[in-house]
Amino acid sequence: MEINNNQLLRFTTAGSVDDGKSTLIGRLLYDSKSIFEDQLESVSATSAKKGHDGVDLALFTDGLKDEREQGITIDVAYRYFTTPKRKFIIADTPGHIQYTRNMVTGASTANAAVILIDARHGVIEQTKRHSFIASLLNIPHLIVCVNKMDLVDFSEEVYNNIIIQFEEFSSKLLMKDVRFIPISALKGDNVVNKSENMAWYQNGTLLSTLENLHISSDINKIDARFPVQTVLRPQSDRYRDYRGYAGRIASGIYRTGDEVAVLPSGFTSKIRSINAGEKEVEEAYAPMSVAITLEDDIDVSRGDMIVKKNNQPEQEQEFDVMLCWLNNDAMNPRAKYTIVHTSNEERAIIKEVIYKMNINTFERDSEDSNLEMNDIARVKIRTTRRLMLDSYRDNRITGSIIIIDENSNETVAAGMIV
Amino acid sequence: MSKYYLNYLDELESEAIYILREVWAQFENPVILFSGGKDSILVTHLAKKAFFPSKIPFALMHVDTGHNFPETIKFRDDLIKELGVKLIVGSVQESINSGRVAEEKGKNATRNALQITTLLDAIEENKIDCAIGGGRRDEEKARAKERFFSHRDDFGQWDPKNQRPELWNLLNGKHFEGEHFRAFPISNWTEMDVWNYIKRENIKIPSLYFAHERKVVFRSNSWIPVSEYLRLEEGENIEKKKIRFRTLGDITITGGIESDADTLEKIVQEVSAMRKTERGDRSDDKRSETAMEDRKKQGYF
């Protein structure tokens, strides 16, 4: 398959246990011809062993031993398929409340979220929770699939009522682009192929919607941010004086000759050259990995950020974050943690829990300051030194942090700068 | 006006380079696990780009089952010379000789599982804190759950139920003495992506991937190459066929497919029309439904 200018679209799927999420993913893979014969044979054999009629599409996304035994997804699994228009990465995340952290993980890099609603049950608590997380993680596009339409006689009225329910609660959330699609994952209606049972629905199938979402504006191309990962100094004869600052452009566009400032020192210089691999280029943009050299010999190292002189992030030592707790051990208010922000890390304390979010009712609780696994709260963080920050709404890369427990080395929380 | 978005191959390349640079920045002594197969060749190619104009700052480590395609070894040695990097070899034969592991017995005996001990020993001996692999999530269901930075405890084991969450592009490689990490920069690539990229970049790969005449026997639905290690079983005949290999591993378990694809263009065409997964021809994965998961937990690639 010759695909040249095709983009990569990452999406996450969320639904409660019986919403048919695995069947939907199986259907997408199967109808887009992304299933291989040996996979089909193995799934057919298992389906027969379990006494299902025909192929159980959900088995295509079967995971680890424990997951198969319990019939649920525990951890995020990644699936891949390609159509002549795009390459897709699905972050298949579990829907149950105890796995909120996994949904947050899958959502963090997604261009789009696909949220499943069972047509028989309409909007339930889980729908609200999943939509809240999608909005909190600032996923640019939301696709609400009303599934199991075959079980409500493909009724337009049922579908319209669910849209109204959804609009009511979601008006409180920040969302840019929401679409609704009536589907039956089991029967294949409106997933890849247009439904013959719902002539009243005029818009695209799930796949054609995914193929046509406008995603090239999902990355901020205005505020140029370049976190330095490492410094390249070849010290070979040919490149004796070369000092390249290597990193992946977080946002914006850089050109040779641009006037830049190196943070936190604030020294200014001009871009002399930009390398993308062996190739020298005149300009580079997010999310390219490049190496940049400067006209002046200034001290730059990992954790520094190269930005445009006239467009700089805030530098703060104390700031508010929407924090999602990811670890079995609850937050310890006296503990010292390591905070990781772009390529930079500092020690930090969580100074204050401002409020905890009830993710089912969207109510704020400012009394409870305990943070346990899957809790989401607004907190105040203080770091030993200033960080170069943007708000998460403006910039998903320079607006995000993780927190590491210094005793266990585990990633215990993820946060979005307010 | 120029466009300001990447196509999918450029985005995958950029992601992989980012991960390789993070490995270099976060670890003391990383290596690239090099099998001579296309995925590890791709990782090496990406490392060249990531650190240009510097040399690749990692050694390559080959876990050698002793049952090699001669072509693979020559390819490996030529590449090492060209890149000017160090080669570390962990030898399964030596692990057997020193009594660390025993050769499997029976009809389907292979050295596949024995590699785990050799790999973990080599990691410990060389004080390696991160081994970069060419594993891809599309290969197998246990691999679909892998992180970019995957933690291994001090026994080298993987605990799939207790993995560190990985959000945005923030990678946590912190570890205690004796533990190590595996890093998978091409996690998000599919077999098709790998071939499209190899073709686009015109990356050199071993001749075994191209269709060639070879003496083979038909076993478990694929063509196993004749070598000094192969014992013929009843009813098996040696035949001469035009075949190529989709994956390269231990010569005793890597099956070829009949093919006329002798150029990269033809391979890309052939792969895109394939109706079977590439690991479908690997008998190491056919042993049980959880064969890969079980091996991975113990410390496999």
CATH class of the largest domain in chain B: Alpha Beta
What order do the SSEs of chain B take from the amino end to the carboxyl end, as H and E?
A: HEHEHEHHEEEHEEEEHH
Oligomer: heterodimer
Per DSSP, the total helix count of chain A is 7
Question: What is the element layout, followed by pairings?
Answer:
The complex is a heterodimer of chains A (418) and B (301).
Chain A: E1 8-14, H1 21-31, H2 37-49, H3 65-70, E2 77-82, E3 87-92, H4 100-107, E4 112-118, H5 125-136, E5 141-147, H6 156-170, E6 177-182, H7 206-212, E7 225-227, E8 230-232, E9 244-248, E10 253-255, E11 259-263, E12 267-276, E13 279-281, E14 283-285, E15 289-294, E16 305-308, E17 314-325, E18 337-341, E19 344-357, E20 364-365, E21 376-389, E22 400-405, E23 411-417
Parallel strand pairs in A: 1-3, 1-4, 4-5, 5-6
Antiparallel strand pairs in A: 2-3, 7-16, 8-9, 9-15, 10-14, 11-12, 11-16, 12-13, 12-15, 17-21, 17-23, 18-19, 18-22, 19-20, 19-21, 22-23
Chain B: H1 8-26, E1 30-33, H2 38-51, E2 59-64, H3 70-83, E3 87-91, H4 92-97, H5 115-125, E4 130-132, E5 149-152, E6 180-183, H6 191-201, E7 212-219, E8 222-225, E9 239-245, E10 256-258, H7 264-273, H8 291-298
Parallel strand pairs in B: 1-2, 1-4, 2-3, 4-6
Antiparallel strand pairs in B: 5-6, 7-8, 7-9, 9-10
Helix pairs in contact in B: 1-2, 6-7
Briefly, what is this?
Chain B: Residues 29-254 form the Phosphoadenosine phosphosulphate reductase domain. The complex is a heterodimer of chains A (418) and B (301). By secondary structure, chain A is of the alpha+beta class.
